[in-house]
Amino acid sequence: SAASTGALMETRGLTVTFLKMDPYINVDPGTMNPFQHGEVFVLDDGAETDLDLGHYERFLDTNLTRLSNVTSGQIYDAVIQRERQGGYLGATVQVIPHVTNEIKARIAQIAEKYEDVDVVIVEIGGTVGDIESLPFLEAIRQMALEDEDHNTLFIHLTLVPYFEGSGELKTKPTQHSVKALREIGIDPDILICRSPQPLTREVKKKIGLFCNVPPEAVIQDLDVENIYELAIQFHLELLDNLLVHYLKL
């Protein structure tokens, strides 16, 4: 979904780059079991990264660097090394602010490296409610609060399952997922809803009502046979119009 969103923004004449943040403690996926995590994608600079970076490169026809993939392992390693070197001047090192500051610094680093880019898409892996991802979610909450120019947009990818027996789409998982995000201070601006069946207007209105977003900001993400069809589907849902409107681009 992130790659398709980036491809859509490129069709609007905008330049885009990506940052994938993975909450696992491994420093990189190079030593991880591919049956658990999927194949490793190796970048031009030799970095062993998440397979999502391969999607980013193919969808945007670009070459990313090791700065585009950050893990909890890298974050904690940097914080511990700085503490051992006296970089915190004897302060008690904590998740907030030290770990979250390091996460924010990694996001700022890629924005500074690609200063000519219009949009940086930051994807946080995992599931809302996972303990591992909480520092990342807290960091982006803080970044949005500190963003005086209001250039931050939250998109939440969620699930709307379909029950064959009753022929119903169930919105409760989406409602609870958004509720969990709002409890930690993040209000999604756009919801991208994975589903094997089309979302009716009534379903979109219900999700919008309970999740505090306009129905037009509820975007269906139907299962597709070819992943490259997804960007077309998002365009038909007018996602690119929403992005340009919210970010004032």
How would the global form be characterised? globular
Q: Could you spell the SSE succession in H and E letters?
A: HEHEEHEHHEHEEEHEHEHH
Instruction: Return the CATH topology of the largest domain.
Output: Rossmann fold
Number of discrete helical segments: 10
Overall CATH architecture of the largest domain: 3-Layer(aba) Sandwich
- What summary fits the major beta sheet? 3 strands, parallel
When the domains are counted, the total is: 2
* Terminus-to-terminus distance: 20 Å
What amount of the residues lies in strands? 15-25%
Name of the CATH first level of the largest domain: Alpha Beta
The stretches of 5 or more residues where confidence is low (pLDDT under 50) are none
Q: Compute the gyration radius: what is it?
A: 19 Å
Helix/sheet category: alpha/beta
Number of E-state strands: 10
Please name the defining characteristics of this protein.
three-stranded parallel beta sheet; 2 domains; alpha/beta; Rossmann fold
Please explain how this structure is put together.
The structure is a single chain. The strands form 4 sheets. The protein has a 3-stranded parallel beta sheet, with helices on both faces. It is built from 10 helices and 10 strands. The chain has 249 residues and is of the alpha/beta class. It starts with a helix and ends with a helix. α1 runs parallel beside α3. It folds into 2 domains: 134 residues, Rossmann fold; 96 residues, P-loop containing nucleotide triphosphate hydrolases (Rossmann fold, 3-Layer(aba) Sandwich). A hairpin with a 4-residue loop joins β7 and β8.
